[in-house]
Design a protein that fits this description.
With 321 residues, the protein is an all-alpha fold. The chain is built from 13 helices and no strands. The radius of gyration is 19 Å and the shape is globular.
Amino acid sequence: MQNQSQLSSQSTQGLTMAYNNEEPLHSQAVRVGVNWIFAVTFAGFHLGALAAFFYFRWSALAVFVVMWVLAQNVGIAMGFHRLLTHRGYSTPKWLEYCIATCGTLALQGGPIYWVAVHRMHHKYTDKVGDPHSPRDGKWWSHMGWILNGSLRNETIALKQYAPDLTRESYYVWLSKYHWIPLTAVGITLFAFGGWSWLLWGAVLPVTIGFHVTWMVNSVTHLWGIRRFSTSDDSRNNIWVALLTGGEGWHNNHHANPVSARHGLTWYEIDVNYYGIRLLERLGLASHIKTARLKRTVGEQVRPASRDAVGTSIGESSHSAT
């Protein structure tokens, strides 16, 4: 991988120490009952999403597109994932906070929780300690780990996977009150556009976003193409990539975790990376780390590796095939 920049030594050292000193919290395959807060919220949003189709307006569709881009592309993919979790690029702190706030619009938890869970996933990918491996079941990897898993009770332990974020008061506050931005947006949408704007701008994108994000956890570890012989089950899945703006090039990502670029060829569309490059053009992003394929490297389908060795935030454990 060719790095256009390197992580600061302080940041890298802190994250590496946190990773090396941790043991798997538990096997997420152990069920602990139903997370009723999540279950009720999940059901309510799905009912609201169905109701949205009875309140269609073209203006509401435009609101949906704007909210989808802000929450899923900017907030989750460019923000929580490529910026905060892997530090694949840098932005001014004020913009980093704005992007992270956009991530809460997806209602997938605060930045500390989201980042910690994802770093844990990279450390223990497809072995004991992975929060959402399909090896524990397809349903489990998609949403069972949230609905029935015990990880939600590991708040203190999870913070050890995001020491960089827990040191910043804004992220501590945003993680505690991560529901406030979406609530404020929802009230505003209702005030200006009624039920149509509320359902299409807040409820529907969140509901679809749940499943699109979880497909990265489940589908891209089950079906697709393996360019790199990583020691996990990650795959490149074009359909998930199209739905997420590039997160579906998951085998590429697990081979090169800190790379801000997931689509490594011209035909691997990576809208989220294009957004990062746009920020760079505007002078708002720098130190972008990118992975590139050697010209001699070809692609071919390979069976999933069953070697249970995870990949940490800044390591690449693979060979090209």
